[in-house]
Amino acid sequence: MTADGTTPATGPQARAIVLLRRPRLWLVPTVLTGLLALLLSLLYMGGVVSPQQDLHRLPIALVNGDTGKPPAGQRQNLGTQIAAAITSDSSDDTAQWRTLTRAEAQDELDSGKVYGALVVPADFTDSVTALTTTHATARPTLTVLTNPAKGSLGSSLASKITTTAAQQASRTIGEQLTAAAPGADSTRKLLLADPVLVATEVGHALGDHSGLGLSAFYYTLLLVLAGFMGGNVISNGVDTALGYADNEIGPWHTRLPTVPISRTQTLLLKMLMTAGITVLSVSLVLLACVSALGMDATHIPLLWIYSYCASLAVGLGVQAINAAFGGIGQLVSMFVFIVLGLPSSGATVPLQAVPGFYRFLSHFEPMRQLSDGVRAILYFDARGDAGLTRAWTMIAIGAAAGLLFGFAMASYYDRKGHRRLTPQPA
């Protein structure tokens, strides 16, 4: 049915079984569907299928607090020996060991700069030396600190690396102790062979409603989806309201009168509406996550402002891409903001554990920039050096790039006289 309520004239009706015999009808949908399935499989699974194999220079703190005197016949205490052995090992580049003080390590845990830490206590040498005497009161301990705020997988990888390093140190020390006590009984030899206890503690704690460090990722995904879907809904709605697209719901079909308007003015209208409607969408996202579901969150006003700016930047980018690419704009923006963004965000799999292609994308892909800011606000007390400063900068750059690109393409089309076609019903 048309806008004036009349039913258009109809001719002979085509039959599906006849149309199926047309090769050209199959060509474009088949090629695009196949390419999409292949690309999605390669891009999504390529970023997560082998994190341990791709792991490269994961930042981990190494704290040598040992103040004991060197054992007899040795120039350095055991803590210094352990630290030197770990940092000088060139056979494995899975970790980037950062030698720090205990206070420095805690600061880097609290700002998300390291995924974990290995701590040698002040009395470590004295405790090990006491094992060879009758004065031993406790088993020597090396402490592994985890950072669940960096994500469960990243924290787990760091914990495995630090635990392995501590166990290797224990075995090395055990060989020295066993050689120094040849007359020890079998029970004592067993203790001396692996003398160090490895204790695991949380270095930067999260609340019980933080999704084990994944709430920041899913909240970021909600912001991106709100901007992406909202932008496309607004774009389609404006085109329908201005008479440049049909409105078809079930059996009902309408076409509104066409409003004469340039591409530039259409884009301006869509972007202004995006700025207004995003206020509602991000408010509902925040309300649902924090109030209804109880997600752990602090700095609520800052989180709302950040959420609005982040989602708006995505929405403006969607409008710009749609203005530039037309009918395939939604597909292009899906790849830009979602398909390439998810595996390169570093929010579920650390960037140090993905192939180099995704690390390259992470420098400019929107989801990585947005997730760093959300993580800083939710987990790291909104510290600028935890990623929030860079996130604000990239949001500003992204929004400006979207505005410049969109209006440059729209004005170019207007200057060239590329008016939008408005086919009329028969």
Q: Can you offer a commentary on this structure?
A:
- By secondary structure, the protein is an alpha/beta fold.
- The chain is 56% helix and 8% strand.
- The chain is built from 15 helices and seven strands.
- The chain has helices spanning 16-19, 23-46, 51-54, 78-88, 102-110, 124-130, 152-180, 186-193, 215-241, 263-292, 300-325, 329-339, 356-361, 366-379, 388-415; strands at 58-64, 95-100, 116-120, 141-146, 197-202, 247-249, 252-254.
- α14 runs antiparallel to α15 (388-415).
- The model has no long low-confidence stretch (mean pLDDT 90).
Quick summary:
The protein has 426 residues and is α/β, with parallel strands linked by helices. It has helices at 16-19, 23-46, 51-54, 78-88, 102-110, 124-130, 152-180, 186-193, 215-241, 263-292, 300-325, 329-339, 356-361, 366-379, 388-415, and strands at residues 58-64, 95-100, 116-120, 141-146, 197-202, 247-249, 252-254. Helix 9 packs antiparallel against helix 10 (263-292) and helix 11 (300-325) runs antiparallel to helix 14.
Core attributes:
single chain; 426 residues; alpha/beta; five-stranded mixed β-sheet; two-stranded antiparallel ribbon; elongated
Q: What topology does this entry show?
A:
Blueprint: H1 16-19, H2 23-46, H3 51-54, E1 58-64, H4 78-88, E2 95-100, H5 102-110, E3 116-120, H6 124-130, E4 141-146, H7 152-180, H8 186-193, E5 197-202, H9 215-241, E6 247-249, E7 252-254, H10 263-292, H11 300-325, H12 329-339, H13 356-361, H14 366-379, H15 388-415
Parallel strand pairs: 1-2, 1-3, 4-5
Antiparallel strand pairs: 3-4, 6-7
Helix pairs in contact: 7-8, 9-10, 9-11, 9-12, 9-14, 10-11, 10-15, 11-12, 11-14, 11-15, 14-15
